[in-house]
Amino acid sequence: MPKNQSTASKRARLAAREGAKFTAARREPDDAARTYSYIPTGEAGDDHVWARLSEDCRDCPCHAARVCADGLWHLASRPGYTDGAAYADPCPCEEAAKIPEPRRLTITFKGITRTLDATYHRHGMLRGYLRVLGYPFAAEPEDGTAANRCGMVLTRSKVMRTARDDHGDTWLANLRGSVGGRPAVITGWWSPGAADASAGARSSEAPRNR
C-alpha cells in the first residue's frame, strides 16, 4: 500500500474513533487558487489529502454548526445568496439566544442553602453567565452607604460545587455586586432585620451634633 494511502487510512480510523467527519479532497493541478474537489471517502486515491469540513447548522441557513453551538455570531461573517446578494435576514439561532433561558439554582452561601430562580445567558454581555433573579442577597456599597438588596452573577466552574442548577451545571459564587449602580460587596442573604441592624450600627458610629 502506498505511504500516502496508508496515512490516509490511519487518519480515517482516528476520525472514526473520535466521531469526527472527514472527507477526501484533491487539489486541482492547474488551479493556482488552491481549491479542492471532494469525493466520497471510499474512493480516495494516493493523490488525495484528508480535510475536516465545517458542517452547516441544522437550525439556520446562515451559519456553521460550531458558530451557533458556541455563540460566535459576532465573529462569523455574513453569508450571501447564490446570486451574490447579501444575506440580510436575522439568524434564527441568534434571535432565540437573545432570550435568557430560565433555570433553577441551588446554592449554599454563608452556610445557608436555598433554591433560586435564575437565567442563563447565551448572548450579549452576560453570555455564558448565570444571573440570579429577585435580589436575594445583601450587599454593602464600597462608598459606605447603607446596605441593600443585591443580585448575583455566577461564572461556570467545574471545581466549586456549592452552586448547581437544574441542568447539572456547577457555578462559582461571585462576591462582587452592585447596589443602585454602585459597586458593592455581597455579605450574605437579605433580610429586613439584618438591614435594620446594619443601619442602626452605622447611625451609632456617626458623630453627634451638640
What does this structure look like?
- The structure is a single chain.
- The protein contains four helices and eleven strands, in the order αβββααββββββββα.
- With 210 residues, it is α+β, with helices and mostly antiparallel strands.
- The chain has three domains: 1-53, no CATH class; 55-98, no CATH class; 101-205, no CATH class.
- A hairpin with an 8-residue loop joins strand 1 and strand 2 (36-39).
- Mean pLDDT is 75; it is low at 1-5, 24-28, 31-39 and 195-210.
What oligomeric state best describes the polypeptide chains here?
Answer: single chain
Provide the number of structural domains: 3
Class by alpha and beta content: alpha+beta
% residues in beta strands: 25-35%
How many strands appear in the DSSP assignment? 11
Order of neighbouring strands in the sheet with most strands: 4-5-6-7-9-8
Q: SSE order in H/E notation? A: HEEEHHEEEEEEEEH
Low-pLDDT runs of 5+ residues are 1-5, 24-28, 31-39, 195-210
Rg over CA atoms, rounded to whole Å, is: 28 Å
Q: Name the helicity range.
A: 10-25%
**Separation, N- and C-terminal Cα atoms:** 101 Å
Gross geometry: elongated
Mean pLDDT: 75
Output the number of helix runs. 4
